[in-house]
From TrEMBL:
Residues 23-37 have a biased composition (Basic residues). It comes from the Eukaryota. Coiled coil: none annotated. Residues 1-38 are annotated as: Disordered. It comes from Canna indica (Indian-shot). This is Methyltransferase isoform X1. The keyword Transferase applies.
């Protein structure tokens, strides 16, 4: 299931013929926007945590905990990585179509995370029946800001393009969870998820052309949390190699009971644009490194910029990964906030 993003058609030239002053003004506004843009925070989770679940129901509940943590702490991206020795580039876009075939824990986790992040009114159109989703009805809803009810108004809504002809010959009908479908200017293939700008006025008419925008627009324009993206990686090194951000993640943190102990109030995270926090599987990140042919033999400090123990006074011999995610994301709240304040100038 993929989103359709709005294309950027700005060629840098004035569109209204007003000359170089408008061109300079737009460049200046663009620089200010880029400087003030909130940094992103991603987490990477070993899919092997699912393999330890004793039933499909328990595996589903575990996946639901990961989704809840990612939403509560406003993660922008969740990367689920497998434990394959070498990278399988073709596997990035592959899922198990035959339900009789066994599905890896990583792919199961990807499917459930994507399902839960999708607004309820879009799920039937975007997710066909699958045995891996049998128990998702037991999970508590994420209730994220983009999971809007029919009576709720927001300048943006998530929608799915329909295979239906609009009354006019142009545009595409989109189901955005209202009593009436909306019409967007672009001509798009059916069955694609899109973010639609609904207008700035609560009382605006549904009729008339709406605009498909980038899924990052609610976050960048209004500071709204608009859910997380889900990405599959065949191994740990693929998490870094296939980063969607230009230049990659500029600070990577590994979490482990063997990591450095430092209090949250004293932790100083360097200024970053894209932060990644990594959680290992049953045997920790050390095993993930050894199973990866691209990383085998490397020290953890060669792989991660920081290697931290976020719960040093644990009373149990082990902390489950789903527990570690909640503990660690709370631990990182204040250090991340301090970095964000530097971008906002506060």
């Amino acid at each position: 299931m993929k989103r359709v993003e709005a294309a950027n058609n700005d060629d840098g030239q004035p569109r209204d013929g007003s000359g170089s002053n408008d061109k300079k003004r737009r460049r200046k506004e663009g620089k200010v926007k880029k400087r003030m843009q909130k940094p992103t925070v991603s987490i990477a989770v070993a899919g092997s945590i699912i393999d330890n679940a004793q039933s499909l129901e328990l595996a589903t509940l575990l996946a639901g905990q990961v989704a809840r943590a990612a939403t509560v702490f406003r993660m922008d991206e969740v990367v689920v990585f497998d434990n394959k020795a070498s990278s399988d580039e073709n596997s990035v876009a592959r899922t198990t179509e035959n339900e009789d075939e066994s599905e890896s824990g990583a792919w199961f986790l990807v499917r459930v995370l994507q399902y839960l992040e999708t607004p309820q009114y879009l799920r039937r159109r975007l997710f066909p029946m699958h045995k891996g989703l049998k128990f998702v009805g037991l999970l508590p809803p994420l209730d994220a800001p983009h999971h809007l009810r029919k009576h709720e108004w927001c300048p943006f809504r998530e929608g799915v393009t329909l295979d239906a002809n609009p009354t006019s010959s142009e545009g595409t009908l989109v189901d955005v969870g209202l009593n009436k479908n909306v019409l967007v200017e672009e001509v798009l293939e059916p069955g694609k998820r899109v973010t639609v700008a609904m207008g700035d006025n609560r009382n605006a008419e549904i009729d008339g052309f709406k605009k498909v925008v980038a899924s990052s627009s609610p976050r960048e324009q209004m500071g709204l949390y608009w859910g997380y993206k889900v990405r599959y990686a065949s191994n740990l090194s693929s998490v870094f190699r296939n980063c969607p951000h230009k230049g990659g993640y500029d600070h990577i943190i590994g979490t482990s009971e063997h990591g450095r102990v430092v209090s949250s109030s004293e932790l100083d995270i360097p200024l970053f644009r894209h932060l990644l926090i990594v959680f290992g599987g049953l045997a920790g990140l050390e095993e993930c490194i050894e199973e990866d042919s691209s990383l085998k033999g490397k020290d953890v400090h060669d792989v991660f910029n920081s290697y931290l123990n976020t719960c040093p006074l644990q009373g149990s011999r082990t902390i489950r990964t789903e527990e570690a995610i909640f503990i660690s994301l709370q631990y990182f709240q204040e250090p991340i906030k301090r970095v964000e304040q530097q971008y906002s100038g506060k």
